[in-house]
Amino acid sequence: MSYLRIATHPGIFSAPLTPAQALGNVDGLVALGNVRLLAEEAGFLDVYREVTGGFPVRGNLVPDAHLAALLKQHGVRVLYTRDTDFRKFSFLQIRDPFSP
Question: Range of 64's domain?
Fold first, then answer.
């Protein structure tokens, strides 16, 4: 969902993708054998509270906290991103996908 938000945003890109193009990219990614979609499972709100307990979460940090809680609930500990806000979540190891 974050990809769809960013890839289609006219304030971020001068020629953003159409919603259909962006969703087509997600379809292609999900079709790969080693990719799976994550969803909230029982106990998600407890994990969210744990992930966000050390600092106030509001505004633009809410979707990042949501994703961080999903990652934690599913045992994902490494996230490839350039979004420095994810460094606030101590359980995550952040890797810049554009660094060698």
Answer: 38-100
Which letter does DSSP use for residue 14 in this model? S
Verify that 46 and 9 share a domain, yes or no: no
**Is the same domain home to 21 and 69?**
no
Q: Are residues 50 and 3 in the same domain?
A: no
Q: pLDDT tens across 65-99, in order?
A: 999 999 999 999 999 999 999 999 999 999 999 99
Q: How far apart are CA 17 and CA 37, in angstroms?
A: 21
Ramachandran angles phi, psi of 94, nearest 5°: -100, 130
pTM for the model stands at 0.81
CB atoms within 10 A of CB 30: 10
